[in-house]
């Protein structure tokens, strides 16, 4: 049985590629002027969330790659160093 999802809100895209975040969405996300939103593709859908709203699984994957917790390094600081080097490596 497929559940129907009610539409929360909608926005119109401007010619400059900008959108307004509807008041109900801002309220639910707890965002206001100056807040940063992240856009991520998940399973063919785009998910928008307030920056910094990551699950522990998101953090683990970013630090250690993959989802195999048995193979992950127990040294969190080393995982952070590797991630930062990879993310900020010069091309």
Q: Can you tell me about this structure?
A:
The structure is a single chain. The protein is α+β, with helices and mostly antiparallel strands and 91 residues long. The chain folds into 2 domains: 21-53, no CATH class; 56-87, no CATH class. The chain has 3 helices and 2 strands. It has helices spanning 23-29, 56-64, 76-87, and strands spanning 37-42, 45-50. Strands 1-2 form a two-stranded antiparallel sheet. A hairpin with a 2-residue loop joins strand 1 (37-42) and strand 2 (45-50). The mean pLDDT is 79.
C-alpha Rg (nearest Å): 18 Å
Query: Per DSSP, what share of the residues sits in E-state strands of 2 or more residues?
Result: 5-15%
| Helical percentage | 25-40%
Strand order of the largest sheet: 1-2
Structural class computed from helices and strand pairing: alpha+beta
Large-scale geometry = elongated
Q: Please count the helical segments.
A: 3
Order of helices and strands: HEEHH
Total domains: 2
**First-last Cα distance:** 48 Å
What's the β-strand tally? 2
Biggest beta-sheet profile: 2 strands, antiparallel
Give the rounded overall mean pLDDT: 79
- The poorly predicted ranges are none
Quick structural summary:
With 91 residues, this protein is an alpha+beta fold.
List keywords for this structure.
alpha+beta, two-stranded antiparallel sheet, 13% strand
């Amino acid at each position: 049985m497929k559940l129907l999802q009610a539409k929360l809100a909608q926005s119109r895209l401007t010619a400059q590629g900008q959108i307004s975040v509807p008041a109900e969405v801002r309220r639910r996300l707890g965002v206001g002027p100056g807040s940063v939103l992240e856009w991520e593709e998940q399973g063919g859908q785009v998910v928008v969330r307030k920056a910094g709203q990551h699950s522990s699984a998101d953090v683990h994957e970013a630090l250690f790659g993959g989802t195999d917790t048995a193979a992950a390094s127990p040294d969190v600081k080393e995982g952070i160093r590797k991630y930062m080097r990879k993310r900020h490596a010069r091309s």
